[in-house]
Amino acid sequence: MLLIGNLIQFCKRCLYGTSHPLGLTLDSDGVCSGCRVHEEKDSLDWKYRSQLLNSLVDPYRSTQGNYDCIVPVTGAQDSYFTVWYVKERLGLKPLLVNYNSHWNSKLGIYNLANLRTRSDSDLLQLTINPVSVKRIAKTTLRRFGNIQWHVIAGHTVHPVQTALRKGIPLIIWGGHQGIEQVGMFSHEHEVEMTRHYRKMHDLFGYEADDLLSVSDTLKELDILQLRYPTDHEIHALGLRGIYLGNYVRWDPSEQHRLMVKIWNYRSGSQLRTYDTFDYVDSLTYAFIHDYLKLFKHGFSKVTDQVSREIRFGRMSKRSALRIVREFELRPPQYLDVFADWLGTNETSLRWVMDFHRSNQFWEGSHWQGWKFKGWSTLHKDWSINESEGEDSDLDLSTPGFFETDYLQMGDDARYWIVGKGCD
Amino acid sequence: MRLLGVISVKEGWAVQSFAYRRYLPIGDPLVLARTLARWKLDEILIVCIDQSLRNAGPDLHLLERIANSYLGIPVTYGGGIRDEQDCNDAISAGADRVAIDYAIRKNPHIANEMSARIGIQALVGVFPLTATEGGDPLVLNYATRRQKPVAEELNQWGDGFPFAEALVVDTNREGSLEGFRRGLLKEFAARSVPTLALGGISRASQAKPLLSLDNLTGVCIENSLFYRELGAVEFSALIQGPNRYSLASHWQFDSIL
After folding, report:
1. How confident is the model at residue B189, as a pLDDT?
2. What is the pLDDT of residue A2?
3. Which of A238-252, A369-383, B213-227, B229-243 is modeled with the greatest confidence?
């Protein structure tokens, strides 16, 4: 939408371009909204903001023996730090809530079980009928080129449904994706969870009922548990969902390292990125899902991750671009596992995936092969080939990102719906 | 008294605008419009803030997308309106009313020609205001950055104010959380001009002092509507009364189960 004459403009500081699907603006200095809002991390009085947070949550402390709040968890991303902060810093008693993605790695199962044990918290998990999950995944893959829709929908609705069912009016989330990536809001706006944001950005403009169509096999019963509660119900409970990232200086890499140290969070390497902490719970997110992102938007998760590191001053833009070029075109692992789970084969899956390659970022065809012309090829600062020699002395190391385990922890590649967790 | 939700649009994206100088992306204007319709606001004000400076005319594609969504809520459109034909095109594309800013700064009398063509009821005049150090309001021409006293601006039309309403924008506080400066409305009140207030109104407590003004016909809420779940509820309760607003309850779980 933001493209004028198909021209993507890039931020002068990070690797983001104006065709970012969440939206991105550049100011008159050519610096993007994400970088500008990130500057607040070094200018805001975080001690004051943590006091604000304390006074915000105080009225929600239960005197009736109920839980004080709900914390949605996946076992990866910001789950550990959020639960740790809620327990250790805020002194709240949370109910952990998890939506089972069906595509868990064994490491993800371990991390989730370990989180429950370490935090000494109750965990409520929603596991939807796998037949319905397959129908939804087929529909969203075909229509949006996205298989994670149900995971995001479940992760964002199950906490709300649970809050209403149990009468717990506070949900505490970790970071806000729109703030962290593209600077959609200032931290001082103190934005909260909204159905509106969930629909527009998390779910690509489609809520559960919007998926239903007379020409599809997807039925109302398949999406029933992913329906967002009514405005009336939310208002009646006075339900709020706040983001810790508005009150605590949010630095996911540092937070992960802290969690490895004190709560034994386990990390694992993933072929399409250097980041060993993010999304290790899933055998789809950093794999087929990330590959589809590259097809549709011309960049992948590694661009998000290096842009974050550039903003924190831990990586140069030049090194970041080289790292992106190193990782983004690597083929994803576990395509065969996903195809098998879906009841198809890898060739058919690739054929469907190819329909979602954007003409803007790809040239070619399924039969002739594809040429990539995505974001990393468009940066005018450094072309891919001409400065290879010059770039050879670049520091491409990514210190601080280490693996403690393999995602499958020694087992064959397969999805774990349930597992033993801790030994 | 009406409650208007404002969607600022820049280069096709809905943005949070801060004093029309800094912008943060929010997303697709159509999805925002649908949310405002779900909240049953009285009206949506869509302002395409870069259309005039690019001399691009009204964003008819956006208007058509919104019209095709059958939102059931009146839409006032501003941005890029240059002449009678642009007014006509915007209304044909789905706008119920058009708001005019840049064109009347260039030629105040074009408003008379526009109202003769589409009717005064469909025209809203936009008045971006700043204030002197003494608090006297000034109209800002954002293209030339020149300013002039409000009285001088309004005198251009004599007794025949050619708009259904004046949209008074507190330019310095636009997009902020600081509240609208009531003093900006005094000249409009003195002339009994029906007025909409826009800029800085982020909480119902900031809107409340404005409601007692006789000539105020509506308050416009910008970015802050999207900061919280049910962001419009406190405004609806204030303006429509606690018993008049209703919240959507269209998922009937019980009946399905």
Report:
1. 94
2. 42
3. A238-252
Contacts of A220 in chain B (CB under 8 A): 256
CA-based nearest residue to B139, from B170, B116, B165: B170
Phi, psi (rounded to 5 degrees) for B131: -145, 150
Residues of chain A positioned with their CB less than 8 A from the CB of B39: 231
Give the burial string for A76-88 (b: 16+ CB within 10 Å, else e).
Answer: bbbbbbbbbbbbe
- Which chain A residues are within 8 Å of B226, Cβ to Cβ? 191, 194, 196-197
Contact B229 A24 (CB under 8 A): no
- Residue A314: closest CA among A266, A274, A284, A369: A274
Q: Each residue of A225-279: pLDDT tens digit?
A: 999 999 999 999 999 999 999 999 999 999 999 999 999 999 999 999 999 999 9
Query: What is the nearest CA distance from A114 to chain B, expressed in angstroms?
Result: 32
> What are φ and ψ of residue B214, in 5° steps?
-60, -40
- Residue B135 confidence (pLDDT): 83
Distances in Å between the alpha carbon of A75 and those of A69, A81, A281, B35, B107? Answer: 18, 10, 6, 32, 62
Write the ipTM.
Answer: 0.87
| Portion 105-124 of B in contact with A at CB < 8 A | none
pTM: 0.92
- Looking at the complex, report in whole angstroms how far the Cα of residue B114 sits from the nearest Cα belonging to chain A: 30
Distance, in Å, from the CA atom of B90 to the CA atom of B93, rounded to the nearest integer, reads 5
Q: Classify burial at B177, counting beta carbons within 10 Å of its beta carbon; exposed 0-12, middle 13-18, buried 19 or more.
A: middle
Q: What are phi and psi of A4, to 5 degrees?
A: -105, 120
**Pair B188, B147: CB distance under 8 Å:** no
What average pLDDT score do residues B37-61 get?
Answer: 92
Mutate to test the interface with A, among B18, B23, B26 (most CBs of A within 10 A): B26
Please tell me if residue B56 touches chain A, with a CB cutoff of 8 Å: no
Q: Chain A within 8 Å of B226 (Cβ-Cβ)?
A: yes
Rounded to whole angstroms, how far apart are CA atoms A191 and B214? 34
- Average the pLDDT over B189-204 and give the result: 94
- Encoded tokens for B27: 């997303």
Of B13, B23, B247, the CB nearest to A1: B13
How many contiguous H segments (helices) and E segments (strands) does chain B have?
10, 12
Domains of chain A: 46-246 (3.40.50)
Candidates B8, B30, B230: best to mutate against A (most CBs of A within 10 A) is: B230
Tokens 């949070």: give the residue: B16
**Is there a contact between B11 and A4 if contact means CB atoms under 8 Å apart?**
yes
pLDDT at A63 over 80: yes
- In sequence order, the 6+-apart residues with CB closer than 8 A to the CB of B88 are B117, B118
